[in-house]
Each structure stands twice: as structure tokens, then as C-alpha cells.
Design goal:
The structure holds two protein chains of two kinds. Chain A has 18 helices and three strands. By secondary structure, chain A is mostly helical. Chain A has a two-stranded antiparallel sheet. The longest helix of chain A is centred in the N-terminal third of the chain and has 35 residues. About 1% of the residues of chain A have low confidence. By secondary structure, chain B is mostly helical. In chain B, helix 1 runs antiparallel to helix 2 and helix 3 runs antiparallel to helix 4. The chains are: A mainly alpha, B mainly alpha.
């Protein structure tokens, strides 16, 4: 038990990070259900106005700082060394410290609920001057800032470790252009983490100093510092899941990923543009060159289109196996399209002035992060569960889980587009009796119930899988592409006993499809010189 | 392809966007600095990756796999206590945090020494 807490094995660190994030996910999910209960009808029924502000602040902050970003990075930390044939990560202690910083940051942030004034309640962006002491008094906000700083520092540590591992620990033959698609998405995410996330630490550090009497920031400078982190953070919460979707699409169509080089190039362009689009969150301030940021934001559709095209082309005429993972791939592709296209609309300053602070924005980012990233995560979870645990998840329960989540997602978030278009403002506990607003909000609340039910089915499936015997072979689906499928399920502490030769970005596919008469020419595994 | 190329290329793209935004759209000092600074840091990281890549090609041998590190956990807990104590609770929490940081740093030193001894024995 103690070993599980102290282990620096990248796989154990990643599992610990996912377990901690799951605990916070359940907490944030409960907060979301309370929010939806409050919004079911006009008036205040469940919480006070101040309480509601705490609820959406803690829900947003928990999901971003403590759930989606840590899970995205944990997946990178688990898979990247396996995919590039590394025995361990570079800087294992940094990853270990990073994981604990995120978990402890979460505890510090949630401790705010125990203070008399309550938890942080200035929104997940904690705008200055709203987050200063006169406007948001009490230690809960200080704890919130401390927790967010710690979680972000932890993310930077983990991102740095993954990046350094890619640079330093690729197996012989694993050139950059033989790295699997997921590893490229991990590299893109970690570039953003390492080079954009420090600005949040600076912004929140200065804000903390301001709350203790210093006068350093002006509101626009704060927003630049915050969104320079905040927008790339969206892609950190997206790229690894695109990678998981690509791996699942490739595995369950038994085809190499289509357009590999175009995908890599598009990904790097995507990453550079996503660093340059942050001020579209500030269109309505009038303090930024809107035309520039509209240009960089709209240009994002080009690399996104390439990635979509490549994923669909991989599936096209593939030998599709409709496993739960592949269902989640289709869910991701269809639903993220709604989130992405609504993003193109709000990338236009003219339309953004109308949508700003309305439920259109809430619907847009939930379609990207929930309907997109979370579905991508589940595609990856169903794909890699046998690799991580040696056991399979129930396909039958998986389909029920998928169906409940799809229904819940549309019911919860689709009405929000209509509500926002009709002018319903976000971040308010109450709304007037107006047209069909009550009916739409009831639909949204019912939808959140479907989502909660879907998650219960998933947790039941996870629990049931642990009752089954371990039996997954190394290549758990029989159609693995990259090196992680060449080692046992679950992998040993040193990752590999032997590695197959690496001659492309799909070395296991190469092995499977080597000409039968190649005989002596077929690649032989190479033993690894690991000592523990 | 060396990892230096995507790193430095990506950094150069950020610098180019910063220059373009500044020249064509009056981007402003802070946004330009943020973008160009991140780009410059990525270029520097690319240069570092290039050096690491060259060294890596020369030195390949058996390596030790780190299994656990109690010292890192002590250090992290200490840093948390010291930070939260300094920013919010007060010296009552901060000083125990500092003590844990010192203990953790000492432990890390011992872990590094032990790793060096093991590595020497292996070779």
C-alpha cells in the first residue's frame, strides 16, 4: 500500500493521478447536478446567489485544474514511454512531485468550503479586480488561488517530464517521424503546458499578492496573462484525446493511421495557432486587436480539418470492429464537430459580442470538453483498460454507458445554444419566466441525470472488471499498432523485456503484416539491457 | 529528424506570429512579449534538445530504473505546507513545512548517492 503512494514508476504515478482526478471528477459532477437542480425553474430553490457563485467557480476550476488537465497529462505520462520504447521517464521524481502537487493543490482548493466565507467564488478565471479582497473577501479565495497555483505547477512538472522523455529516451530506431500519433499529440500538449502554463502561475501569484495589499496588476494585463494560459489549456484538454481517438480508430479498423505526416504537420500548426488565439476571449474588452485574433482563431479550422479528415480516412473502408471504444470514437467525431463549429462562430468578433457571457458559450465549451474530450477519453479508456489492468471492461455495459452519455449530452447541452441565443446569461442563479426557457432548462437538468446515470454504469463496469481474472494478452485487441502492445498487460516496472525492430510508426502492424515467406527476414525482438 | 526541429520550428512560428501581429495589427507590448518570449524559450529548448540528442548518441548503456522516492514526497508535502502557510495560514504551518523541505532535500541527496553507488557497481 505504501509502495503505491511512493512509487515513481511512470505508470503508477499516472494511475495515481487518474484516481485523484476521478475523486475530484465525482465532486465536480455533484456540484454540476446541484447547479442544474437550481436552474430547473426560475427563482432560488436550492442555493443562495452567493452559494451558486461558489458552485460554478468550484465546478469549473475543479474540472479544468484538477480533472481534465491532470487526466490528459496522466495519459501522456502512462503511454508515451511505452509508445517510444523507453524503460522509464526522464526526471521520474519531477513527475512524482507533479502528481502530488496536483492532488494536494486540489485538497487545498477544496478546503475553502470549510472556511466561514466559503470557497473561491470569482469564476475559474478569477478576474482582477473581481478576485481582489474587497470584492471577494475571505480565506477561501486565497486557498483557491494557492490550490490552482500548485495544480498548475504540478502540470508543468509532468509536461516537462513527458517532453524530456520524448527528447531523451526514444528507443533505437524510434525517430521522430516513427513516433505514434498519440505521442505526437502528447508532445503538442506538453509544448503548450511548458511554454504557456507559467503565465497562469505568474497571474495567480500576482493576484495573491494583490489580495494581500500589493498593487501590481491592471485588469487587461491580468486577462492577457490569464488567457495566455487559458486558451492553450483548452488544447491541452483536447490534443491527447484526439491522439487516443486516432489510436482507437487505427486499432479497430486494423489500418495504419492515414496521412501521418500531414497529421503531424497540422498538429504543430494547430499548436502554434492555439498559442496565438488567446485574446478572442477578450474581444469585448475593446483592448485587443480583434481582427488579428479573429484571424488566428478562424485559421484553427484548417489543421483541425486535416486531423478530422485523417481520422475519418483511417476508418474509411477499414475492417471496422464496433467495440465500445469505436462507438466513443464516432461519438467524439460527431459531437466535437458541434463544439468546433460553434467555436468558429464565436471566433468572429461580431457574433462574439452577441454570444459573450451567454449560454451559447457554455454550450460551446461543454460540446468541446465534455462531448469531445470526455468521449475521446472514454475511447482511450476502453481501448487501453486491458493494457493497464490486464482485464477487459464489459462491452455490454460499455454500450449502455455510451448510449446514456450520448442522450445525456444532447439533452443537457443542446438546449443551452437556444437559451444563449435567446439571451439567457451564464453565471446567474436565477432567470426570468421567458418563453420556453423553463422547458429548455428542465430538459437540460433531465439530461444531466442521464449523464450521472451513465457515469454510474461506467463505475459499475470498472468495479466488475476487477472481479474478473487477468487474461488480456500483450496485444489485447489483436490489432495493436505501436510498441505499448508489444509488452505484457499490464506492463512490467521496466516496461519492456524485449522490443521489436522499429521501422515505421506502426511496428506491430509491420510485424503482423510481414510477408509469411519472409521467414528469416522477419524482424526479431531485441532484448533490452534494463536493470532495476 | 531531430526533436530540435519541431521544438525550434514551433518556437520560430510563435515569434513570427508575434512579429506579424505587432507589425500589422499593433498587438501591444505585453501580448507581443508573451508570444515572442514563449517562442524564444521554445527555440532555446530546441537548441538544448539538439545538444542532448548528440550526447545521447554517444552514451548508451545499462540504466537504473528508479522505483520510489520517499524524499520527493516529503519535499512536496513540505513545499505545500510552507507555501500555504506563507500565503494564508501563517508561520504555524510555514515553519514545519520548511523543516520538511530540509528533510526532503537531505533524503534526495542520500537517494542520489545510493543511485551513484549502484551505477558504479553495475559498470
Amino acid at each position: 500500500m505504501i509502495a503505491a503512494f511512493l512509487s515513481t514508476d511512470h505508470k503508477v504515478v499516472a494511475i495515481r493521478a487518474v484516481v485523484a482526478a476521478t475523486v475530484f471528477f465525482v465532486g465536480a459532477g455533484v456540484l454540476a447536478l446541484v447547479i442544474r437542480a437550481e436552474l430547473t425553474q426560475p427563482g432560488l430553490q436550492v442555493v443562495s446567489r452567493a452559494g451558486y457563485t461558489e458552485l460554478f467557480t468550484m465546478h469549473g476550476a475543479t474540472m479544468i485544474f484538477l480533472v481534465v488537465i491532470p487526466i490528459a497529462l496522466a495519459v501522456c505520462l502512462y503511454l508515451v514511454p511505452l509508445q517510444i520504447g523507453a524503460l522509464q521517464v526522464s526526471g521520474a521524481r519531477w513527475a512524482f512531485a507533479g502528481q502530488w502537487l496536483v492532488a494536494l493543490g486540489g485538497v487545498v482548493m477544496w478546503t475553502g468550503w470549510l472556511t466561514r466565507e466559503g470557497a473561491g467564488r470569482a469564476g475559474w478565471y478569477a478576474y482582477d479586480p473581481l478576485a481582489r479582497t474587497p470584492e471577494t473577501p475571505g480565506p477561501g479565495m486565497d486557498l483557491w488561488l494557492c490550490g490552482a497555483i500548485m495544480a498548475t505547477l504540478g502540470a508543468i512538472f509532468i509536461g516537462g517530464v513527458v517532453l524530456t522523455t520524448i527528447v531523451r529516451r526514444r528507443a533505437p530506431g524510434m525517430t521522430m517521424l516513427r513516433m505514434p500519433v498519440f505521442t505526437w499529440t502528447a508532445l503538442a500538449s506538453c509544448l503548450l503546458v511548458v511554454f504557456a502554463f507559467p503565465s497562469l502561475v505568474v497571474a495567480f501569484g500576482l493576484l495573491l499578492a494583490e489580495r494581500h495589499g500589493a498593487r501590481i496588476l491592471d485588469p487587461i494585463a491580468y486577462q492577457h496573462l490569464f488567457w495566455f494560459y487559458g486558451h492553450p489549456a483548452v488544447y491541452v484538454m483536447f490534443f491527447p484525446f484526439v491522439g487516443l481517438v486516432a489510436e482507437a480508430a487505427s486499432t479497430f479498423s486494423d489500418r495504419r493511421f492515414f496521412g501521418y505526416r500531414a497529421f503531424v504537420l497540422a498538429l504543430l500548426a494547430f499548436t502554434a495557432l492555439s498559442m496565438s488565439a488567446w485574446a478572442h476571449h477578450m474581444f469585448t474588452t475593446g483592448a485587443v486587436p480583434n481582427r488579428l485574433f479573429a484571424l488566428t482563431s478562424t485559421a484553427l479550422i484548417l489543421p483541425a480539418g486535416v486531423e478530422y479528415f485523417d481520422t475519418i480516412a483511417t476508418l474509411w473502408r477499414g475492417a471496422l470492429r464496433f467495440t465500445t471504444a469505436l462507438l466513443f470514437v464516432f461519438g467524439f467525431l460527431l459531437q466535437f464537430l458541434v463544439g468546433g463549429l460553434s467555436g468558429v462562430f464565436v471566433a468572429s468578433p461580431v457574433l462574439d459580442y452577441h454570444a459573450q457571457d451567454s449560454y451559447v458559450v457554455v454550450a460551446h465549451f461543454h460540446y468541446t470538453l465534455f462531448a469531445g474530450s470526455l468521449f475521446g477519453l472514454f475511447a482511450g479508456l476502453y481501448l487501453y483498460w486491458p493494457k493497464v489492468t490486464g482485464r477487459y471492461l464489459s462491452e455490454r455495459l460499455g454500450r449502455v454507458h455510451f448510449a446514456l452519455l450520448v442522450v445525456g449530452t444532447q439533452l443537457t447541452f443542446l438546449p443551452m445554444f437556444v437559451l444563449g441565443q435567446e439571451g439567457m446569461a451564464r453565471r446567474l442563479a436565477d432567470y426570468p419566466h421567458h418563453g420556453d426557457w423553463t422547458a429548455l432548462n428542465v430538459a437540460s437538468t433531465v439530461g444531466s441525470g442521464f449523464i450521472a446515470l451513465g457515469m454510474l454504469v461506467f463505475f459499475a463496469s470498472v468495479a466488475l472488471s476487477f472481479l474478473r481474472a487477468r487474461g488480456a494478452p500483450a496485444d489485447a485487441w489483436g490489432s495493436g499498432m505501436s510498441l505499448e502492445w508489444a509488452t505484457s498487460s499490464p506492463p512490467p516496472p521496466h516496461n519492456f523485456d524485449a522490443l521489436p525492430p522499429i521501422r515505421s510508426y506502426a511496428p506491430l502492424y509491420d510485424l503482423r503484416h510481414a510477408a509469411p515467406d519472409a521467414g528469416s527476414r522477419s524482424p526479431k525482438p531485441q532484448p533490452q539491457g534494463a536493470s532495476a | 529528424m531531430s526533436p530540435a526541429i519541431p521544438l525550434a520550428g514551433w518556437g520560430a512560428a510563435l515569434v513570427a506570429i508575434a512579429i506579424f501581429g505587432s507589425a500589422q495589427y499593433d498587438l501591444g507590448l505585453l501580448p507581443t512579449l508573451l508570444l515572442a518570449g514563449a517562442g524564444a524559450a521554445a527555440i532555446a529548448a530546441g537548441a538544448a534538445a539538439w545538444v542532448v540528442e548528440r550526447r545521447r548518441a554517444r552514451a548508451r548503456g545499462p540504466e537504473l530504473v528508479l522505483r520510489s522516492s520517499a524524499a520527493t514526497l516529503v519535499l512536496t508535502f513540505g513545499a505545500t505546507l510552507a507555501f500555504v502557510g506563507y500565503a494564508f495560514v501563517g508561520p504555524g504551518v510555514m515553519w514545519p513545512g520548511v523543516a520538511l523541505i530540509i528533510a526532503g532535500a537531505g533524503g534526495l541527496r542520500r537517494e542520489h548517492r545510493a543511485a551513484r553507488r549502484l551505477a558504479g557497481r553495475d559498470t
